[in-house]
């Protein structure tokens, strides 16, 4: 059984808009180098079954992540601000360049909600609410939140896409004609479980703390202050509109205590200087 994705449950049209937004605002030379790196990492050796298997797993991950992202965009309206989205994508691309997932392109979308929350979907689709963005004061805080959500993807907190029945069913969906959006029953079941995690049960506390630790590592490597995420969490803990986040995440005091320890172990002395541009874009958040 297959479920067409353009119906009542999925908004692939908004997702395609997000996918059309450039991932970086770097120079052409930088883009060429990134494309060369991407080709090196993504084009498999045709004689290597292992590489072909890894590429297949990535395709399955992205396929499922796209459908989950389209499901979220049916629940929330996507903010179609090109400049704001390009800016967020550029931060994600910078962080992704030092991650272990060079096989993915990380994309960040803004969704309209007063709830202070963020989402990470398999395959690198990340979403921040307008409520979250309004509480952010610096680019370091913004990078910390994005990096935390990336951490879930990098560390396979949604599961590894190996040779299971769901994996095979997802890959079979890749054979559909280009441009068609089809969600099969195996994918719909997996998406339902992930949605339940987003809005009801949350992830295990251990993996949330792992994503916090990964975030500190990522931001410090590209020159952001490692304190950004803990500063944001401290502000969030006192703000209205964070009920869902508190319901689905560990105690904020526990997260901050662990972050303080991790932050003390990293240095950004050798990292490039980062110019904070958040003040240029914050006023673009819908009121």
Order of helices and strands: EHHHHEEEHHHEHHHHHH
E-strand count:
5
- Terminal Cα separation, in Å? 42 Å
Profile the largest sheet.
Answer: 3 strands, mixed
Cofactor: Zn(2+)
Protein name: Peptidase, M48 family
EC number: 3.4.24.-
GO biological process, one term: proteolysis involved in protein catabolic process
Task: Give the topology.
Blueprint: E1 2-4, H1 12-20, H2 28-42, H3 49-75, H4 82-96, E2 107-111, E3 118-121, E4 125-129, H5 130-135, H6 139-154, H7 165-173, E5 182-184, H8 185-201, H9 205-221, H10 228-237, H11 243-248, H12 252-263, H13 278-281
Parallel strand pairs: 2-4
Antiparallel strand pairs: 1-5, 3-4
Describe this structure in words.
With 287 residues, this protein is mainly α. It has one domain (2-284). It has helices spanning 12-20, 28-42, 49-75, 82-96, 130-135, 139-154, 165-173, 185-201, 205-221, 228-237, 243-248, 252-263, 278-281, and strands at 2-4, 107-111, 118-121, 125-129, 182-184. Strand 3 (118-121) and strand 4 (125-129) form a beta hairpin. Helix 6 (139-154) packs across helix 10 and helix 9 packs parallel to helix 12 (252-263). The chain starts with a strand and ends in a 6-residue tail after the last helix. Mean pLDDT is 83; it is low at 27-32 and 34-50.
């Amino acid at each position: 059984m297959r479920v067409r994705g353009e119906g009542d449950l999925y908004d692939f049209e908004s997702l395609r808009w997000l996918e059309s937004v450039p991932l970086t605002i770097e120079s052409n030379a930088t883009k060429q180098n990134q494309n060369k790196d991407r080709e090196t990492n993504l084009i498999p050796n045709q004689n290597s079954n292992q590489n072909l298997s890894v590429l297949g797993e990535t395709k399955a991950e992205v396929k499922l992540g796209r459908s989950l992202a389209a499901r979220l965009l049916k629940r929330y309206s996507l903010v179609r601000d090109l400049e704001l989205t390009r800016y967020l994508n550029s931060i994600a691309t910078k962080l992704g360049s030092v991650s272990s997932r060079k096989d993915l392109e990380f994309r960040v979308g803004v969704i309209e909600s007063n709830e202070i929350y963020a989402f990470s979907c398999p395959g690198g689709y990340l979403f921040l609410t307008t409520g979250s963005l309004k509480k952010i004061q610096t680019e370091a805080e913004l990078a910390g939140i994005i990096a935390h959500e990336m951490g879930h993807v990098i560390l396979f907190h949604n599961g590894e896409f190996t040779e299971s029945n769901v994996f095979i069913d997802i890959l079979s969906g890749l054979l559909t004609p280009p441009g068609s959006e089809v969600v099969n029953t195996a994918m719909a079941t997996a998406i339902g479980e992930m949605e339940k995690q987003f809005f009801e049960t949350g992830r295990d506390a251990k993996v949330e703390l792992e994503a916090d630790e990964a975030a500190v590592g990522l931001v410090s490597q590209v020159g952001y202050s490692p304190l950004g995420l803990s500063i944001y969490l401290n502000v969030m803990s006192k703000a209205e509109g964070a009920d869902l986040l508190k319901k689905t995440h560990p105690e904020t005091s526990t997260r901050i205590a662990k972050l303080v320890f991790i932050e003390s172990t990293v240095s950004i002395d050798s990292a490039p200087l980062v110019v904070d541009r958040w003040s240029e874009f914050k006023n673009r958040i819908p009121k």
